[in-house]
Amino acid sequence: MTELQRILVVEDQEETVLFISQILENHNYEYSVARNGEEALEAMKADPPSLVLLDVMMPRKSGLNVYQQMKKDRNLEKIPIIIVTGASQATGVDMTTGVEDPKESYGDEFARGIGAVIKEKLDGISPEGFIEKPIDPSVLMAKVKQLLP
Amino acid sequence: MSETDSSINRNAPADRQKNRSVQWRIMARQLPLLFVLFVGLLFWLENHLEDAFYATNLESVESLSQMVVSRVQTSMESKDAGRPWEGVERLLPADKNTRLKIINKQGVVLFSSEPESRGQKHNLTDPPCVPCHVGGSVRATVRSKFIDKPLDEPFTLFVAPLRNTEECRSCHTDEGTILGMVYVWHSLGPVRRLVRTSQIAVIIAGAAALIFTILTTRLFLSRYLNRPLNRLVAGARAIGSGDLNQKIQLSERTELSVLADAFNKSGERLKESIREIKNHRDDLQNLYYIADQLGRSVQPEERRRRAVELIRSIFKSDCLIIAGHFHPESRIFHGTVTYRENDEIIERSISSERDLPAVPFCSPLIVQRWLRGELDQDFRIREGSTVAFPLERHGQRLGIILAPARRKEDSPDGRATAANPEVVRAFIKHLSIALELSELQRERLRQERLAAIGEALAGLAHCLRNTLSGLRGGEYIVESAMRNEDENRLEKGWGILKNGVRHVEKLTLDILFYTSDRQPELELINPNQIVQQVVDLLGGSAKNKGVTLRCELDDSIKPLPIDRVAVYQAFLNLVGNAIDACVESELGDLVVIASRDRRDDLLFTIEDNGVGMEEQTLKRVFDRFYTNKPSKGTGLGLPVVKKIAEAHGGKIEVKSTLGKGTVFYLTLPKNPRAS
Questions:
Q1: Do B547 and B512 touch, CB atoms closer than 8 A?
Q2: ipTM of the predicted assembly exceeds 0.85
Q3: Does position B416 have pLDDT exceeding 50, yes or no?
Q4: Interface of B with A in 412-441 (CB under 8 A)
Q5: How far is A76 from chain B (nearest CA, A)?
Q6: Does residue B1 sit in helix, strand or coil?
Q7: CB-based burial of residue B172 (10 Å sphere; 0-12 exposed, 13-18 middle, 19+ buried)?
Q8: Which of B470, B592, B612 is nearest to B542 (CA)?
């Protein structure tokens, strides 16, 4: 049923790559890995995946950049995306609702700034398009299944 | 006083000159007046004296002529007709000044006091007759008397007619006619001489009076005006030049002495004013001193100590300061009592009046009332031998000062301002503000500490969450691998788990290092040696990652006192970071650690050609728990380096270009104490 569907994992941290790929393997998903934003865009253009798991904090080209370029590209615009981020904890902004929770926030100006940028740049993304670190395998799979019917 | 006298004398000639001019001015105006008066008097005398003399003479001459006429008439009536003028000469005065002539109708002189002219015809052209008998006829009315002054010898002449009366008709028939003339000539020469003599006497007396007047005026002016004026001027000058002890003494009670009194009084008042100004100046200086002293230290204990010292030095009084704060809900007081005992300032903590020291003026009653908030908020409260000054701001009780009560007269310098209420008030206010500031500062520190703890905990949680994320991934992989019996995956998962454990270990060590308040344990050691140890330790693993460590150490560097463990940790963090930066970038392969001996300090540079940092990251590299390596970094490495550098009196700086590399500059002073 899902054998033909391929997921592109865009992530620079080796440990996270291993973690996500283990989850995907356990659920029999095809996947490929891109280590940074540029590599990811190239891979997508060469062979558009069915879903992209996109890390935000990456060297060279950030996940946000990749997201914006995909939305501009006709061929890539329709591909569902799950943003993988640790920002919610850092900013106190719940990425799924966009609401800032003062209890969660630790008043870090820089992190707040990032949070604001993420919120602005990802404006219009559906709540299922986010997953926070640390990744809960069952949550990840639920979201993947939702986006890949 | 001798100084004042000399100053008066020095000024005296000028004064005298000035005052003489006042005197002379008065006299210059007075003299012409006196002179005109004198001359006028002379003129008056000239006219009226002479006239008066003449008038007296005229009367006597007139009466003489009347006597002659009546004698002649009487003689004629007594039929002594032959020579009726016989015996007339007896009526004449003995002097030769009076001449008498009796002339008949025909102008023949019947009788004359000058015998040679008897029987001769009277000459009408004689000077006395000329005015009336011009050209031989009488033109003017017959005058019985006249005075002719223009002549050399003035005289008075009486011409009295001898009339033919009823009784004469027996002999003289021609009725009502003039039978003859009696002619009395009187020289006024002696009278004039007398008048002249009188005039000269009057002139001399007048001149003498004038001179006398001038001299006495001069004398009195000098006595009553000049001398007092000079004293006034000298006194005024002395007061003007600042000698306020100068008193102007005038012997006479005049308007000038009133002026002198006014001067003396204003001098006194000036002295009083100056004393007051001096007191105010002292007060101001004290206030500046108080403000400066209380503001100098930010430590509350130091402020309280200074306050005790200030009260001693400015108000010359012992005191006891209770300061502290009331817990907002329980109203429990916690504070300190500061006082001086045996030349030593003692500070003890206090929470009730039972903790008070046994100082004579320390009244537990007042303190008890104050603690209960029962003291009406008066600036000064006196209770027996104690005087208390509550310290408060915005209705908040901050403390209270207790001091021995004393009267104004008891102040050591006799100055009322030794305890000038205004200065005391200002002092109380200053101290209240200082204590309030201390209180606010204490509160702020507490808040800051809480905030810092919160921030640190949040940062720590963030860091732990990253580690946890790794551990969770590792755990999942290991579980999956065990289930699938995938040995390769198992190894990888195990590696992730081990990394996570290492990370927690490193974090723990960094936290310990960062939070420990230990003072650097200094020992004389060459920092190059430490750098070399770090390079030796990390060199191998770096090489495995494709990174070369190169040392360019300055051999001239001598050992210096540093904390070996701390500096080792600092270099370990810096070189470790540099290696990581190289590993992250594709091109990074070299870390250069260099040292250089500068004049006052040593400079260490740790340069890599790794990923470099963005400007935003660069700004935050020394912030706690900030890391751009979530899985590896603890966010404490560079803060630890900074702390170590600063503990040695040195500093750490960084320059970085994204994609090209980063340089850290660590400076350690050669003499940490001097810096």
A1: no
A2: no
A3: no
A4: none
A5: 29
A6: coil
A7: middle
A8: B592
